[in-house]
Amino acid sequence: MIRHRFSAEDFHRMAEAGILSEDDRVELIRGEVVELSPIGKRHAYVLNTLVDLLSALRDQGVLSVQNPLVLFPDTEVYPDLALLQPPRTQYRNRLPEAKDALLVVEVAETSLDHDLKVKLPLYAQAEIPEVLVVDLVRDRVHVFRKPQGAGYQEAQALEDGELEVLSLKVPVKEVLP
Predict the structure, then answer these.
(1) In a domain, 24, yes or no
(2) Which among 22, 24, 61, 109 is least buried, having the fewest CB atoms inside 10 angstroms?
(3) Interstrand relation of 140-148 and 151-158 (parallel, antiparallel or unpaired)
(4) DSSP-assigned letter for residue 56
(5) DSSP H helices in 55-166
(6) What range(s) does the Putative restriction endonuclease domain occupy (predicted)?
């Protein structure tokens, strides 16, 4: 089987040409266009909760919800949430890149395996300093810090207690549905 690999530039040209529409839930992973899982009720609830809670960090970063994040020339992902370096005006004429991300959050139900096995190593390789994966299958929040190679030096799974994100402390039970 022959696979055709695309760059982020090709990916955008496909959208401009109408091959991909704005409504297509896809991202570019190492040159391949990958379909995203549909968003269910629990996923939407948790994402809205996180937006509400993390909006307290507005003075420390720009909250970006389900928007593109360019990790590499052949990889453009759409994390559920990203906290980006301020000011927001720097993103007026360019997409945020890995170097801009302070935090990335993925909410995972049907996408848990993909988020942990495919996207997490990409986030580590792109040196995203902190990644949260809200695991709706097991009702826990995975916290990853200190990227090194294709992994993170610090990893923990929280089912209760407090989640510390930058200067903000949030009860884990408040994040989970």
Answers:
(1) no
(2) 22
(3) antiparallel
(4) G
(5) 112-114, 120-125
(6) 9-167
Q: Is 172 exposed, middle or buried (0-12, 13-18, 19+ CB in 10 A)?
A: middle
Is the pLDDT at 166 greater than 90? The verdict is no
Could you tell me the CATH number of the domain that includes residue 136?
A: 3.90.1570.10
Please measure the distance between the N-terminal and C-terminal CA atoms of the chain and give it in whole angstroms.
42
* Greatest extent of the chain over all pairs of C-alpha atoms, in Å: 49
Q: Is residue 107 part of a domain?
A: yes
- Any domain includes 13: no
Cα 48 from Cα 28, distance rounded (Å): 25
pLDDT value, residue 171: 93
pLDDT in tens, 87-139: 999 999 999 999 999 999 999 988 899 999 999 999 999 999 999 999 999 99
Residues 143 and 156: their CA atoms lie apart, in Å, by: 5
- What are the backbone dihedrals phi and psi of residue 149, each rounded to the nearest 5 degrees, phi first? 65, -130
Mean of per-residue pLDDT scores for the chain: 92
Which run of H or E residues covers position 129? none
Which domain covers residue 114, as residue numbers? Answer: 37-175
| pLDDT computed for residue 53 by the predictor | 94
CA distances from 93 to 30, 70, 88, 122, 127 (A): 24, 14, 11, 24, 23
Q: What is the pTM of this model?
A: 0.92
**Residue labelled with tokens 């009860």:** 171
